[in-house]
Amino acid sequence: MPVRFPHFESASTLPHTLVIYGTFIDAPTPHELRVRLKHVCVVDVRCGRITTLCPEEEFVDAVDGVLEGVEVVRMRRTQAVGVGLVDCLGTKTDVPLMEWLNKYTFPEESSFRNDAHSCNTYSSLLRRLLRNGTTTAVYFATNHLSSAKILAETAAAYGQRAYVGKVCSDQLVPEYYSVADTEEFIKWVKERWDIPVEGSGYNYTGPKRRGGREALIKAVITPRFGPTCSWELLCELGKLARKYDVFVQSHAAESVDEVMLVADMHPNMKRDIKIFSESGLLTDKSILAHCCHLSEAEVSDIVSAKAGIVSCPHSNMLFARAVVDIPHYYCPPSSAVSGTTTPNATNLSLGVRKIGLGTDIAGGPSSSLWHNMRLAIIQDRIPSFRNFAGYPDDVPNNSGIETASVWRMTHTYTYHIATVGGAATVGMEELLGVLEVMRLFDAVLVDWGMEDQGFEVARSGGEESSGEERFMMGGDDRNVLKVWVDGKEVCRRI
Questions:
Q1: 161: which of 29, 136, 342, 414 fits an S-S bond (Cβ 3.0–4.6 Å)?
Q2: What per-residue confidence (pLDDT) applies to 96?
């Protein structure tokens, strides 16, 4: 089926109200998949917020599709609206890092000096992410100011919520690599999208641009990673982070070779977390990708700073020689339904409140966060792998073989991390992540009954299996029918 991008393709008048009837799914905690059947959701498109979400029998407002400015969506039995996904990282490697940078990244980045190339590439990227249901993304752009601006403008044109960083490095990089213009980029983004307007909250009916936390596009200070940044550059970026109160993103404890290279390039501090902390780059707005080789003391430093961690399961398994033990790190929020604390929010957790997922897509097989959600389940099992040949032959009845560890990552857990966890990581935990009244409506409409889909919904004894679980474990962009960001429709499969 063809895919359209209404926000980009049309300047037609938007409806002022969106009314959706059917099933609504979110995951307030890692162990709580909330499925609300026969509900109705009303969205004020002008401010992008949910104003009503209740059972259909309690909905008494006589809103109908014949009223001017009202759009009504009635879902079928095989359809549901879920929370839009938050992709917290957009780069990837599958060889040692410096080899990857010199062989692939730097030559490719040099092509982004051409604005036409940037426009074409970023447009293709935005289309693919939106059709997969990624409503928010955190981007490493390139080191070119014009290219970073084009990425920000392209994301805004397509209606995606985007955190855009102009990459900074000043050592172990080609001669043409520029570190200038970071402050100019931050000011440019703030002037265009971060515009506080009186009445810009719930009752706001003015222009589409809203400032502060609700700004659609945000600038991110982006030191590529420790080895390619001098101490002087990191300190200057730390000053900018404080001056403009903006997000920071980088890679930390990424792989064995990266950890060793950091120790070599920064012999006085040796470790990423120490370096970021001392340079002013470890804050409550820091987004740290990978974090596969952290000590528990470093995790404690991240918790104290209220910084966020991004797990990238596919790239971690390819090259990091370690994985992120998300359930061990993560301290999830209390249940939005029962008010109770979830099981691993106890002394089993190291207390990290912000953990999201990233596709890390530059060299990967998929730009779909659904793909990495499934890999996060596999990632959780890897530490318990054993070689059967290592057990003695004379153990009676295999009684000496260790039983499997408790595997905690499920489709519900990974959906929670991709939505609630991602929202917290980008500082939007009170506005995104779940479907609730007064939250911003970033959402996807999926259908697990598509003729050309890549999985079957099995029937047993006349009962159909859980369609939402089958979609989460086997679905793709063919199942995504509509995507909304800030209450506006940004993608439609027709």
A1: 136
A2: 61
Residue 61's pLDDT is 63
CB-facing half-sphere around the CA of 396: CA atoms within 13 A: 0
Write phi, then psi, for 24 (nearest 5 degrees): -125, 130
Do residues 165 and 222 touch, judged by C-beta distance below 8 A? yes
Alpha carbon distance 76, 410 (integer Å): 26
For residue 340, what is the DSSP state? Answer: P
Strand pairing report for 17-29 and 70-74 = parallel
Q: How far apart are CA 131 and CA 150, in angstroms?
A: 20
**DSSP helix/strand/coil, 253:** coil
Distance CA 25, CA 79 (A): 10
Q: Average pLDDT of 88-98? A: 61
Instruction: Quote the CA–CA distance of 480 and 477 in Å, as a whole number.
Output: 5
Residue 18's identity, in one-letter code, is L
pLDDT computed for residue 392 by the predictor:
58
Q: What b/e sequence results for 277-307 when a residue is b if at least 16 CB atoms lie within 10 Å of its CB, and e otherwise? A: bbbbbbbebbbbbbbbbbeeebbebbbebbb
Euclidean distance between the first and final Cα of the chain, in Å?
6
How large is the C-alpha radius of gyration of the chain? 23
Q: Residue 32: how many CA atoms within 13 Å on its side-chain side?
A: 19
**Cβ-based neighbours of 8, under 8 Å, separated by 6 or more:** 157, 158, 159, 490
CA–CA gap between residue 68 and residue 385 (Å, rounded):
60
CA dist., res. 165 & res. 184, Å (int): 12
Which has the minimum average pLDDT: 56-70, 120-134, 383-397, 435-449? 383-397
The helix (H) or strand (E) run that includes residue 70 is: strand 70-74
Half-sphere CA count of 223, side-chain side, radius 13 A = 31
446 neighbors 472 (Cβ within 8 angstroms) = no
Count of other CB atoms within 10 angstroms of residue 336: 16
Name which of 185, 163, 156, 152 is nearest 87 in CA terms: 163
How many other C-beta atoms are found inside a 10 Å radius of the C-beta of residue 182?
24
Six token digits for residue 115: 């604005």
Look at strands 247-252 and 217-223 and give their pairing: parallel
389, burial (CB in 10 Å: exposed 0-12, middle 13-18, buried 19+):
exposed
Residue 84 in tokens: 């839009």
Please, which residues have CB within 8 angstroms of residue 73's CB and are 6 or more apart in sequence?
18, 19, 20, 21, 22, 445, 482
Report the amino acid identity of residue 420.
V
Return the bridge partners of 309, or none: 288, 355
